[in-house]
Amino acid sequence: MAISIAFFNNKGGVGKTTLLCNVAAYTAEEYGLNVLVIDADPQCNATQYMFNDKKLAYFYEETSSFTIHNVIRPLSLGKGYSKELNVTASPRFGVDVLPGDPRLALTEDLLAKDWGAAIGGDARGMRTTLMFAELMKRCDDYDVVFFDVGPSLGSINRAVLLASDYFVAPMSIDIFSVKAIDNIAAWLSRWRKQWSVGVENVDDPEEVGTNLARKSGFLGYASQHYIAKADGSGAKRAVNAYEKIMRQFESIVASELSTIAPPPLKIDTFLLGAIPNLHSLIPMSQSARAPVFGLKAGDGVRGAHFSKVKDSRETFGNVAEEILGRVGLNR
Known about the structure:
The protein is of the alpha/beta class. It has helices at 16-31, 45-50, 53-61, 68-76, 107-118, 123-129, 131-135, 155-161, 175-201, 205-208, 240-256, 281-288, 305-327; strands at residues 3-7, 35-40, 88-90, 95-98, 144-149, 166-172, 217-226, 228-230, 236-238, 271-276. It is built from 13 helices and ten strands. Strand 3 and strand 4 (95-98) form a beta hairpin. It is globular.
C-alpha cells in the first residue's frame, strides 16, 4: 500500500509546490521509488511546474486527456467513484502525475455541503468526503504519493488530509506563518472531532468505507525563503532577522501540532530542513520544467549558478531524506 503525504499550509506563498516537486524528484531519482504526485490544488501549480505548455494545452483543451476532474466528476454527478486512474509521466522530474484541474474548485461547495451531512452520519456525505481516500486504492503500484493542495482550510484540503498518512507544513520565515500554525491546529482539531462523531453515527461504517480514512500524522515543517550569509567558520546561517523568527517555530509547532498529530517516530526536532532563498534558480527551474538540482547549461545555468545548483541537491535532499526516514522509506 502506498504511503501518502500531503504538503499543506493554509498560508500562500510559502514555496509549498516547489518543495513538493523537488522532494518528489529527489525521492524517485536517489531512492528509486515509484512516486506519484496528485495535484489537488485548483490553481494547478504542480502541473504547470512539471509539464511544458504543449502538454498543458493537451490536458485542458483535449477531451481525451485525463486530469483530477475525471476522477471527481462521476461522484459529483451521483454516479459513484471513478474506477479509472490515468497518470502522465513528467519527463524532467521522473515521477508520475495526476494533473490538477481548475474545475476541482467547483467541488468545494459539494464537499462542504456533504461534510455537514457526513458528521451527522449520512452515508452519501461520508462517501463524498472520502473521495481522495478511495482514490488511494488505485495507487498500490506506487511506493509514495505526494498530494499538492491549495492554501486554504477548506473542504477539498480536508478530504485530502483524510486520504493522507502524513502531512508536511512548509513555512516561510515571517510572523504570518507563525500565526498560521494556530489556525491549522484549531482547524484540524475541530474536523477530527466532527469526523469521529460522524463515524459513530453512521449505520454501517464498513459499507461506507470509513476504514479508508488515514491518520494524517504531522511529520514536521520545512522553513523556506530565508536569506543566508556565511558566518566566521564559513557555514551559512540565516541572517539575524530571520533567525529570530525561526527560533519561535519549533516551540510553537511542538505545542500546537504535536498534540494533534504526533509523528510516528521519536525525534529531536520537528524541523525537516531549511531552504534558503534560491533567487533566480526558481524561475529558471519553472521555465525549464525541471527540478532545481537538475538544471543544466541548456536551461540557462551559467558561472556561479552551477555551484548553487549542486548545493540545491543537498538542500532538497536533506528534506527528502528526513521525510522518508520518518515514514520508514529510506532503507
